[in-house]
Specification:
TIM Barrel; binds zinc ion
Amino acid sequence: MITNPVPWPNGARCAVAMTWDVDIDSGVNVYNPDRGDTLINSQSQTRYDVHAAVPRICAFLKQQGMRQTFYVPGWCIERYPATIDLLLEGGHEVALHGYLHERPNEQSAEDERYWLELAIEAFRRKVGSQPLGWRAPSFAFSKHSLGYLIERGFTYDSSLMGDDVPYMLRHGSGKLLELPPDMTLDDWPHYMHNRDFRFTMPISAPARAMEVFRAEFDAAWRHGGMWISIWHPYVSARLARFDAVAELLAYMQGKGGVWFATAAEIANHVGDLIARGIWTPREEVLPAYDSPLPELKRGSR
Ligand SMILES: [Zn+2]
């Protein structure tokens, strides 16, 4: 069903990146800017990242001999340096996820650039290098984001959802590789229940959530695709859910022919295939349109 499958390393059937968005308490503040300090319960729910979830994930990955990708807002990098140390000590990829989990497509072009620069600066100060990867907070990629990310030298984005395999985003003369995740691999729709986020899903049993994640993996394996999770430590690394994550990983490992990689490793592999002329990605120009559709200004809707 995939017309342009990527040749994965060592003839693997599919690529898997079990990636995590380490939002901690950035989102609860940015979505409640005037009262984040009073939302003590939501702070506790999200700071579970720092005290329990990220250490748990790191210990598990170490035991598995795996490295993974963690998207972290710049503000969290500054405020929780020990969490970043833990990730870096494990050899994991730390990538950027906004500064305070602000939504770029709800900002002016100037404000978006302001927050992006703050995030890059926070990253550089702590990690000591240029960030390679970006995931837009709340997937809120703006029509200016691509130009900014190209200008600031990012290697890849993992926010947009337009294909089953990597594809190239073009803006003017620049381009950026997209490693598309999908809502089917996001944990919030299954588990997130918090009024301060205006997100109150009925809570799924872990087995039900894993049924969805596993179906996507089986299809990626069958058709030569890619599987990139959008999981949140404070959501998916609670006890019963993390037991289920471990079971899913064992299932994937047991199936064989899976290339487990960080998002940056996938981007590097794909970049190398492109440079050597072995594989050519589909290309998409963004933004698709630069203003609201003119058709909507006339007549009735
Ligand atoms: Zn996030």
